[in-house]
Write a structure and sequence with these properties.
By secondary structure, this protein is of the alpha/beta class. It is built from six helices and nine strands; from the N terminus they run E-E-H-E-E-E-H-E-H-E-H-E-H-E-H. The strands form two sheets. It has a seven-stranded mixed sheet with strand order 1-3-2-6-7-8-9, sandwiched between helices.
């Protein structure tokens, strides 16, 4: 079944879309409240699409069921990963991107964004998507299935702007995971804008302001 979504349009006849994936255990409502901080009144018409992840058991949480884009088996970089779950979510994200095309928004006018688990999927899907996107925004996250990325990445998004951010005080996903993602992306020629903030596993006001500035430049 297609993912259910919450949608907010900042004006009539949107000319671009931000598809934003939430973190583990949250839902599409999580980042909806900051939309007015990202797009000012009468500034421009954007569509924000906030999907709700399916409910599934999560290994690191003792099998507790919650909204998640994939199962997390462990947090270490070399730990086993839920490849089937990751790829199923990638397919669902692709459906949402194509739905925006059908609604009149070209792929190069779509930003794929996410926080934590959602940010990891934004990187996974964005780097592999066969059509050029406006941008990829990955907050407090890491690279998924990194060993296959060189072979699977799509040339269409080699030059796509990437907003990568992390908290220096993140106790859940240490900042080194974000730095490792930045290192890989820069080493492979991607246009990465890196931001580090004095915060835990969250989003801070300066980060929201920086996201707003970045979005103004690309959409």
């Amino acid at each position: 079944m297609p993912l259910q979504t919450l949608e907010i349009e900042t004006g009539p006849q949107p000319t671009a879309t931000v598809l934003w994936l939430h973190g583990l255990g949250a839902d599409g409502n999580d980042f909806a409240p900051i939309v007015p901080e990202l797009v000012g009144r009468n500034e421009r018409a954007l569509r924000f699409v906030f999907p709700h992840a399916p409910v599934r058991p999560i290994t690191i949480n003792g099998g507790m069921r919650m909204r998640a884009w994939y199962d997390i088996l462990a947090f270490e970089r070399q730990a086993a990963e839920d490849a089937p779950g990751i790829r199923a979510t990638d397919a669902a994200v692709g459906e949402l991107l194509r739905r925006e095309n059908e609604r009149g928004i070209a792929s190069e006018r779509i930003v794929l964004a996410g926080f934590s688990q959602g940010g990891a999927i934004a990187l996974f899907s964005g780097l592999r998507y066969p059509q050029k996107l406006a941008g990829i925004m990955a907050l407090s996250c890491y690279l998924l299935l990194e060993s296959g990325l060189t072979a699977e990445r799509a040339p269409a998004n080699q030059g796509t702007p990437i907003f990568l951010a992390h908290g220096n005080q993140d106790p859940l996903l240490e900042v080194r995971r974000g730095l490792q993602a930045r290192q890989w992306l820069q080493a492979n020629g991607y246009a990465v804008q890196w931001h580090a903030y004095d915060m835990p596993h969250s989003v801070c006001p300066q980060e929201v302001a920086d996201i707003a500035d970045w979005l103004r430049r690309i959409v």
